[in-house]
Write a structure and sequence with these properties.
There is one protein chain. By secondary structure, this protein is an alpha+beta fold. The protein has two domains: 32 residues, no CATH class; 117 residues, SH3 type barrels, CATH 2.30.30.210. The chain contains six helices and six strands. It has a six-stranded antiparallel beta sheet. Strand 3 and strand 4 form a beta hairpin. The longest helix is centred in the N-terminal third of the chain and has 17 residues. GO terms for molecular function: ribonuclease P RNA binding. Its main location: nucleus. Belongs to the eukaryotic/archaeal RNase P protein component 1 family.
Length: 200
């Protein structure tokens, strides 16, 4: 039939174009055996490198004012619910803060606890102007606490050379800021050693 001749011509031309180095006799031989294998070279897939998402630098964070609390938000009453949440968090962490609880066990847990929301007081300091400052910790950085006082004033208190006290359910704990120069995230994994005497 005429259609089969067209198909034969097309296949012959296709094979000639696909395999230009092969002679006509070899192509004809392949057609008579009715087995045609075309060589295929798959393209190598190039692996795309994943781009790591970069966070903001310290300079960019300062420029964007990410950690600054707006003046209209600097009110003690706003953060009292945060303090209530913190108290419940510490009670759960220390299994109730019962009178028969061992102080060193509670102290060890407080050293690693999150202090955002705790009410602290500066009890000792090499700078007398810091002594007596009391308020809720709003932010903790490596070297400073940001504290909001009952007078709605935001105080930036350095940890170095200051001793802080916090009270919860009759249990008073003291924080020696000079030994506390860690970020909150670093502190949770830090192993603190017991020391007999600690200086400012």
């Amino acid at each position: 039939p005429q259609g089969s001749e067209k198909a034969k011509t097309f296949v012959h031309a296709f094979l000639k174009r696909s395999m230009p180095k092969m002679k006509d006799e070899a192509i004809q031989d392949m057609l008579t055996r009715k087995a045609v294998v075309l060589e295929h070279y798959p393209k190598k897939k190039t692996k795309q490198k994943r781009k790591k998402t970069k966070g903001f630098t310290a300079k960019q964070r300062r420029e964007l004012r990410l950690f600054e609390i707006e003046p209209e938000q600097q009110r003690y009453a706003i953060f009292l619910p945060l303090h209530e949440l913190w108290k419940q968090y510490i009670r759960d962490l220390c299994h109730g803060l019962k009178p028969d609880a061992q102080p060193h066990m509670i102290q060890g847990k407080l050293l690693k606890a999150d202090l955002h929301g705790a009410i602290v007081t500066v009890t000792k300091s090499k700078c007398p102007s810091y002594v007596g400052i009391t308020g809720i910790i709003l932010q903790e950085f490596k070297h400073i606490f940001k504290i909001i006082t009952k007078e709605d004033k935001l105080k930036v208190v350095p940890k170095l050379n200051n001793v802080f006290s916090l009270e919860l359910d009759g249990f008073i704990s003291y924080i020696y800021g000079s030994k506390f120069l860690f970020r909150a995230s670093e502190r949770s994994a830090k192993k603190f050693k017991l020391k007999g005497t600690i200086d400012l």
